[in-house]
Amino acid sequence: MFITIFAYMMHWSISLGHKHKIFRPIIRKGNELIFNLCYRGYVKKGYSAWDHFWVPAMVKLGQVRAPYIKKTMSVNVNDPKQLGAYHDYEDPIFGVTGHWETNDKSDAVRVETACQLCDHIMKVTNGKGCPEFCRRIVGSMEQATGQAMNSTYTVEIESLLVEGDASCRFIHKLQE
Predict the structure, then answer these.
(1) Rounded to whole angstroms, how far apart are CA atoms 77 and 83?
(2) Are 48 and 131 in contact (CB under 8 A)?
(3) What pTM was computed for the model?
């Protein structure tokens, strides 16, 4: 039950940040707090520390926010790029700069070149990064968001700023 309450609270705060820019710095501090809590758990117990609460909470958040994003962003659920519209929705709220590209397989690719949370992660980890946070915590939220709109949706994380790459690259697809 706490997972569901947490997911709805996160969704409501993010949607508030979408409507009212004044709340965005508070939401970004909340993201930093979430990372700090996740990282402390990781230091004590490894990545398995996230399995009981954080991963299920982010999956639930993705499921909860999907209908709102679908409606707000007028998402065509049969277009992988539009299913990835959660980037366009959340990036300004979270302090992320990015754009869309198409790879050589004609897949929609979200390219993120700056991220305030990535900067925080690098600071907290003394430059080591914590890519599994992005892959497991953020990735589970994004996968659940897209799949709540279309069960064949998948997102692949090709690269990450916290791994020293020039950008985060998220490949959006529909499975056949």
Answers:
(1) 6
(2) no
(3) 0.94
Instruction: Look up the domain containing 46 and give its range.
Output: 2-174
Provide the domain count of the chain: 1
In the chain, the N- to C-terminal Cα span, in Å, equals 34
CA 162 to chain centre: 14
Cα–Cα distance, 110 to 173 (Å, whole number): 12
pLDDT score for 176: 79
The DSSP bridge pattern shows strands 96-102 and 108-115 to be antiparallel
User: In the beta sheet, which residues pair with residue 110?
Assistant: 100, 170
CATH number at residue 103: 3.30.1380
State pLDDT tens for residues 54-93: 999 999 999 999 999 999 999 999 999 999 999 999 999 9
Can you read off the two tokens belonging to residue 166?
């020039």
